[in-house]
Each structure stands twice: as C-alpha cells, then as structure tokens.
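Risk mitigation, structural track. In case the binding assays with acetoacetyl-coenzyme A fail to produce interpretable data, a predicted complex structure has been prepared as a fallback.
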Amino acid sequence: MSLHFTEEQQMIRRMVRDFAEREIAPFIEKMEENDEYPVDIIRKMGANGLMGIPIAEEWGGAGSDFISYIIAIHEISKVSAAVGVILSVHTSLGTNPILYFGSDEQKKKYIPKLTSGEYIGAFALTEPNSGSDSGSISTSAVRRGDHYILNGSKMFITSGEYADVFITFAVTDIAQGRRGISAFIVDKDTPGFTIGKKEKKMGLHGSGTTQLIFENAEVPAYNLLGAEGEGFKIALGNLDVGRIGIAAQALGISEAALEHSIQYAKVRQQFGRPISANQAIAFKLADMATQVEAARLLVYQAADLRMRGIKCTKEASIAKLYSTDTAMHAATEAVQIHGGYGYSREYPVERLFRDAKATQIYEGTNEIQRLVISNHLLKD
Ligand code: CAA
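Fallback model:
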C-alpha cells in the first residue's frame, strides 16, 4: 500500500477541509444546543458531490476511489463527528446495499437521488431487543399479494429524523433463523410506517437518531432487496465497509483532540511556564500522537484493501476497534490537559469526548469487533 495520497485524493482532502471549515463549523452550535439536524448542509454536500463519492458517475456519484471517500469522512469528522456519521451511514449503509444488491429498476429509482443528496439514506437493523445479536431481530415481513406487510420497531437509527430511504431488515421466514432475514427498501411515506421518538443522546447531537415503527406497513414486493433470506449477508457485508467509515470518523475525532491539546498546552501558563513544559503533559501528547499515527495507518490500510476489492472483514474490524479506542483515549486526555476548561462547553474537547464514546458502540461494539477478529484468527 502506498502511504502517499494521489493528486486527486489530496485535492479532495483540501476541498473537504475547506467545505467543513466554511459550511459545517459555523453550524455546530445549533447542532449542539438545539440537536438540529444539518439538513441544509447535507443538501450542499450533495451539490458538491460529497454524498456519493465512491459511486460511479453513471449513477450520479463523483466516481472517485474508496480512499477519497474515507478521506472525506476523516476530514469532516475533525470538524463535526455528527456530520461524519451521517455521511458514512448514508453512503456505506444507505446507498451501497442498493448499488450492490438492487435490481436495475431499484438502482435507477434510488441511487441518483441518494448520490445527489436529494434523498438521505438510513440503515434499519437494530431493534429494542436486538443490538449486538443482530441475527435475532423480530420485525416481521409477510407477503400479501404484491406487498410485504411489515410489523415491528427499529431503534437508534442514524438520520431517522430526516431520511427518505431506509434499508430495513425483517424476518420473512422465522423457521430459517438468520437465513430467514430479508432486506427491503422502505420509503419514508410508506403507509403504516412512522418515525418514532428522537433519542436524547450523550453526544453526536444533530445526527437525528430515532426509533422507527412499522404497523402493518405496506412495502411493495418490488422493494425487496436481493432475494428473500439474503438480508443478513447484505447487512454484515455492508457493515464491513461501514466500519471503515466509523474508524475514519474516530480518526477525525482523535486528530482534533490532539491538535486542540497541543495548542492549549503551549499557551496555558501555570507555575510561570506553559504546561507543555511539563513532561506529564508533553508525554501525554506523545502517546496521543503515537496512537493517532497507528490508527491512521490501520484506517487507510483497510480502505486500501477495500478499494482494491480485497475482502477486509478482519482489517475493517481491527481499524474500527483501534481507531475508536484511540479516539476515546485521545479525547479523555484532551479533557484532562484542558483541566476545568476541558469540562466546560466553552471548549470543543468536551464535545469530542462525548462524540468519541458512540464510536466504540455503534456499527458493532468493540467487543463484537474482537469477536469478529478472533473468529477470523481461529478459523484461519
Ligand atoms: N460479509 C458477508 N457475510 C457475512 C459476513 C460478512 N462480513 N460475516 C458473516 N457473514 C455471513 C456468514 O457467512 C454466515 O452465513 P451463513 O448463515 O450462510 O453460514 C452468516 O453471515 C452468519 O455469520 P456468523 O455465524 O458469523 O454470525 P453470528 O450471528 O455468529 O455473528 C455478528 C454475527 C458478528 C455477531 C453480527 O451479528 C454482528 O456483527 N453484530 C453486530 C451488529 C452491528 O454491527 N450492528 C450495527 C448496527 S448499524 C449501525 O450502528 C449504523 C449506525 O446508525 C451508526
């Protein structure tokens, strides 16, 4: 793997950095204080080609490579991890399943609207009683004529508040266990489908996390994605890609924590000198930088494998595990270095601390990542 970005990748990095500073940074206060979903920013991201970066131009995407997409999540998350997760879920989990498993009609109907940002995509797998054990979902889908009737509820759905398209997993054959799970494209205006309560979260304010309720929801049979029973594989296969996105999001948080800490440690004076003159602080910075560098290599290694079409389930889990633990550690140390100011909402490290925690939990807790990694080691 080359450790250097190509000209095009560097150009995308500059463009995304500039966009994040100009368009996203001024909106953070509204997201934090009012939990406001950045819908106008998402539309602008669409207009700038950011909502379908790795998707071919024939589908309205930017036609860039997978590393460019990861660079975009990484850079946006340095400014706002909430916008970072919206982008990652929209592309990896809201759009890719249609691209890879959809019929031509489904692709034509949905992909150009998703890549342009006209539609926002969401991924509805998790339920109140099914989180890590995603094979145990109980939302049901029963075929009736030319529709499936869905009943059940979903939980913790990123962008649920504003999404237009929900990749939804439901049981079509209970006797088959995980192999009886199927995937559906559910439109926001489906009769019997409603957006439930919005979660009041510790962090990632503005990412519009909601419940979803299906009460005899009538989903047209032509919105079945792939074949009946293929749902679990569609979910896990796309989560490989999604986890690289979350690893990149965490990398953005870590880098922001480190940069804020360096700046603060150089200007904060105590005992007549900057606190960076104390090894207790300087060594914290050294440890943070070492871990951030290692996380960066793991994230881009997984992205490189994915870009070259090589199966990367284990590497995606390793990157997700290490990068998100690094984000939590870096944000914790950043708060410590900032002292009382770090605990105050006046400084951004408090937000980084709250945002980092989610990355260790969603798209598979880090305990699940260890399970995936160890299963691969022992199977080999
Ligand atoms: N790609 C494709 N198929 C895969 C796969 C992969 N990476 N991993 C497993 N599969 C297939 C297996 O081949 C197997 O197929 P068969 O039934 O045909 O043999 C099937 O899936 C089951 O595999 P396992 O035996 O490994 O499944 P398991 O039930 O023992 O364990 C698990 C699965 C790893 C624990 C899985 O349930 C899991 O990843 N859980 C975490 C759930 C999760 O990540 N949720 C994220 C929610 S989305 C989200 O958070 C988005 C957001 O909003 C931020």
